[in-house]
Amino acid sequence: xxxxxxxxxxxxxxxxxxxxxxxxxxxxxxxxxxxxxxxxxxxxxxxxxxxxxxxxxxxxxxxxxxxxxxxxxxxxxxxxxxxxxxxxxxxxxxxxxxxxxxxxxxxxxxxxxxxxxxxxxxxxxxxxxxxxxxxxxxxxxxxxxxxxxxxxxxxxxxxxxxxxxxxxxxxxxxxxxxxxxxxxxxxxxxxxxxxxxxxxxxxxxxxx
Length: 208
Known about the structure:
The protein has helices at 16-22, 60-74, 83-91, 95-111, 118-132, 134-145, 156-168, 174-185; strands at 29-35, 38-44, 78-81, 114-117, 150-152, 188-191, 205-206. By secondary structure, the chain is α/β, with parallel strands linked by helices.
């Protein structure tokens, strides 16, 4: 056992032999811990030294899936509802689909994470007005407006981003570019069964 002195400033020196044996070099960070009546020093490894330290413990792809699930559970993403969602909700004859759309809207209104771009509002109201008339369109508009879902307008910033998307995805309809740009701005995923959105790497599409 070696002994060392503590200076007035509380500093001390780790003997050279111990530094060499433990690989402690100038600039290294040490974790200091009180254990009973003893003081221990542990070398804190540099981040680059930890590369592959847990290799083989788990599959990286599976870990990423688990991470995505955790993020959705604890930090739920905002979600942009596509017109196709409302067509299913309003026109589908399948009770199971109604349960799914109702459940999704309840989740989004309770979490305040639901977004409806104004172009979705336009398309939805246009469909209803042409199929059922102005009165039904007005009633549906009031229901959407009072639902608690956020209605996102077409800002100059979203218009600019949609234009950039259109220039790089020439086969993507302008409406889809606006929806995608709205989702990107809000870091949201898109609720749609439209595969057009899959070509845009900056956002993610899901369905019911």
